[in-house]
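Render this sequence as a predicted structure.
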Amino acid sequence: MANHANFVRMQDSTQQDWQVIGAEFMQFSKALPERVIRHLQILQGDYGGFPIDRYTHSLQTATRAWRDGRDDEYVVCALLHDIGDTLGSFNHPDIAAAILKPFVAEENLWMVQHHGIFQGHYFFHHIGMDRDMREQFRGHAHFDRTAEFCELYDNPAFDANAETLPISEFEPMLGRVLARPRNTIYKVALQD
C-alpha cells in the first residue's frame, strides 16, 4: 500500500486521512467476490460425515436454484448459505447472513439466517431435537419461502450424482450481487 493515513488514534484522523482510506477501501471492496469464493472453497474436501463435501453441497444447492429460474440474489444466497460452516460451527447461518446482509433483500436475508432451523425439519428428530422447531416462526412473512428453500434446494443437495455446476458459472452473479451494497451504515459515504 503506497498511500496511507498518518494517525495513531482514530480520534486524531482527518478528512484527508479518510480520503486515502476511502480510496483504498473502494479498491479492496471490488475484490470481495474473489475473497468470498476463496473462503467458500475452504469447504472443498470437508465432508463432515456427509455424502458429499460442503463445497459441492453449496454448488449443488445453487445449481438447483439457478436451474429452477431463481434470480441472481436468490442463487447467491443458495451458494453461500453454508459458507459459515468453518468459522461458525454452532451458528453457521448467522455467518452467511452477516456476509450477505449488506447486499440482499430482507426476505432472502431472513431465509439464510433461519435455514438451519428449517433444515432441521429433515433431521433433528434423529439427534434428539424437535424437528418442528421451525414452527415457532409459523405465520412469519418469510416462513414459506424458507421452508421452500430447504425443501427444494438445501435438503436434496447431497447427491453425488446430481448436476453440480462449477463455481465459474456463479462468479458473474456473485460479482453483480456483491457490487451493490444497500443495507450498510456506510451507504451515504458510498454515494458519489
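Summary. The domain at 10-190 is CATH 1.10.3210.10 (Hypothetical protein af1432). The first helix runs from residue 15 to 30.
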